[in-house]
Amino acid sequence: MKIDFDKTIRKAFELVWKNSYLAVLGIFAAFGAGGGNFSSIWNSKTSNSPSAESVLYFFSNTGHRISIHVAIVTIIAAVTFIVGLVLIYLSISARAGLIIAVDSLDGGENKFGFWSALFAGGKFFWRMIGFMILLGLAIFVIIAILIGLIVGLILLAVFVTPWLLIVAIPISLAIIFAIIVIAIFFGLLTEFAVRILVLEKKSITGAIKSAINFIKMNLGQIILARLIQVAISIAVGIAFAITAITAGVILFALGFGIYKLGGINAGIIYGFPVALIFLVAIIYVGGGITAYFSSYWTLAYKQLRIQS
């Protein structure tokens, strides 16, 4: 069973290029005091010491200020929490929506737009959340145990005998290597378990089991796919950085020239919309890159799935 990498790479690009809503989905998928005037609280009399009334007013006014500050902090915290929940929902829904939309487009159908794909992905929100929590707990437990072994070996070498370092150092290096391998494995597991969960509509545990078996059956091709993705990521990252920096320097030079010729007002009139457009363009391209790699893995999964 082999992946047609040339076809996969080209088709992933074509899908994102021809369907701009995928890039917008990619944007969402990629997404966490002041003092008062104390002079007013004192009595206007010329006495050097405050009166009883002014002291009472000071404490009552201070309590009022604290209550206002607490209310403001509470409101900000509540708004931040709500916005965070909304962003989490949009991110997970967009991630699932990307998979669904690319699957549909690859099958020759064009029945999704941004909102319909987002809504379709939202149906898998709780299952995706459950999967992420379960996977996160597994990663935490495994890494905690391995790091605990390293710490235990070091403590034994320090408090028992330094000769244990002869054993502790190679074992610690082996454990670090194991952590790296585990991180890579869980990354691959996530790529395929999420697609099985969404496209095959399996349960969380069912998707994990199927993904593990799927990786075992296609390990060589999957590792090659990951290496190709890393290579593409590096190339795209370098090209994106060079383009963004070059465009930024040119736009800044133009803005500086306009400022010199027309003054601060001309500079603001030019700079604000241009900076906004530049920022939106960077965000959009970033979303397109996210959508591309999501499409890449969806197409690769479908090819291997059909062959197996």
Describe this structure in a few short sentences.
With 308 residues, the chain is mainly α.
Low-confidence stretches: 32-49, 55-59
Query: Which series of helices and strands comes N to C?
Result: HHHHHHHH
Q: How would you state the average pLDDT, rounded? A: 83
* Amino-to-carboxy terminus distance: 7 Å
Proportion of beta-strand residues: under 5%
The class by helix and strand makeup works out as mainly alpha
User: Nearest-angstrom radius of gyration?
Assistant: 29 Å
In one word, what is the shape? Answer: globular
Largest sheet: none
How many individual β-strands? 0
Task: Describe this protein's structure.
There is one protein chain. By secondary structure, the chain is mainly α. It has one domain. It is built from eight helices and no strands. It has helices spanning 5-18, 20-29, 52-106, 114-122, 125-159, 165-199, 204-217, 219-307. The radius of gyration is 29 Å and the shape is globular. The chain starts with a helix and ends with a helix.
SSE topology sketch:
Layout: H1 5-18, H2 20-29, H3 52-106, H4 114-122, H5 125-159, H6 165-199, H7 204-217, H8 219-307
Structure characteristics:
single chain, 308 residues, mainly alpha, 8 helices, 85% helix, 0% strand, globular
